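In keeping with the milestone schedule agreed at the kick-off meeting, the structural modelling team has produced records for the first pair of proteins. Each record is given below as a sequence line and a structure-token line. The laboratory manager (R.T.) confirmed that both were archived under the project's standard naming scheme.
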Amino acid sequence: MNPTFHPVPRISTAPSGKISHPSPAPPWTLPPTAESSPAPAREVECFSCRKSTSVPATAVSARCGHCSAYIKLDDVILHSRTHRTKVQTCGSVTVQANADLKGLNIECRDLVLYGRASGDFLCRGVCKIKTDQHISGSICARRMVVEKKTTVLVTGTIRVENIWIQGSLEGTLTADETVTIHRHAKFLGDITARRLIIEEGGTHQGAFTRLT
């Protein structure tokens, strides 16, 4: 005769229906990540309302936070086959060495002229001229550099904060801060500026008016 089986009840300390240990996450669940720091941003000026707005540093386009206008932020390269004459971007514009472009209207952050370009240029950063130019128009830039062995004629006005002339420049120049004419460099025309620095061997032919 087989003995009678008496099961022993298992007593759990956890309340009924509760799992004392969390179940493992399903395999498709991504592991938790640390809270990421905010992406770096930069301030750009809207072309429509002229107010500053903050955009991600890596963005190539954005909407103005004030008027919702579209703002281009990418860099632009102009070459010999370029047909566009108007460029508006908060990025940089480069004119390639083989270009000879006329009637341009450029508004950008930085402008570099390896090739020839003529028109009106507005740069919120640096304008660098690296080759001979005859610019029928005006230049407005925060900083401007005329590099060595270049001869530049600007028929319109030149308006900058600071300018470094290392080659030859002719025009009418207004600088809110300093004009520096380097050794063996030359400027032909009238200058209005807060400070004028002419290194030994540099030349200025024209009138100078000091800003106060």
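The second protein of the pair:
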Amino acid sequence: MTRTIVITGASDGIGAAAARRLHADGHRVVVVGRNPEKTARVAAELGARHFVADFSRLEDVRRLAADLSAVLPRIDVLANNAGGLFEEPAVTADGFERSFQVNHLAPYLLTRLLLGRLVAARGSVVWTSSKAARLWGRVDVERFADPQASGRYRPLQAYGSAKLASLLVMSELQRRYGAQGLSTVAFHPGVAASSLGSAGDGLVGRFYRSPLRGVLASPERGGEHLAALAAGEAGTDWEPAAYYENGRPARRRPAALGDEALARTVWERSEELLSAVVD
């Protein structure tokens, strides 16, 4: 079945690789990226629609959702693939720590704004996650939006915590809307040689720009995992609300994923934070 699939973070790396694979398989791909030139280039290659949005600005996310709803009568799959690993702390114009907003709050907002289209299509939401959610992710509900709450910004912990928050939202989304036909799934694409952490001047950035990046998996490999989930059937090809690694349900997943009360609290807290700047 041909699907209309929106992929964020698709101007390069895993997102672009997935877009190429899905296009080759006959699906209608919509490319979303932060960089106008790179996003347009990928879209032109595929003959696809494209939109530009910077997830560090929630107004961009609102505009993106409105533009997608205006031109797409149906959305079968939303692939929340955009993200970033930031070595230095920063506060966005919306007042949130940047890693938290880009990796959790912005994709949550986009999903919420497109829920009508997705539910109507009995569609699916695919979340590009990370093993960092299990290794370094922490959810402190009292200091939910502040990765610097301990007094020190740790890039991997901030990134992992935001990814863990999105995993919890993924499971709560399934609980709330699964009966209406919506399905959700998340996956770790492998540590890929993408542009994820290449911009910083610290240890992570220097590693991603060094010859050592050759030991990392290719973006194409991660893109294949994303494409398989986006094109697959929930309940047949993958299990709803599951977390995958290497194309299979993860043998070790974040322990917090089994906490339904925490997932519900993270959903509600995300709503509260957005209500102050969006509604």
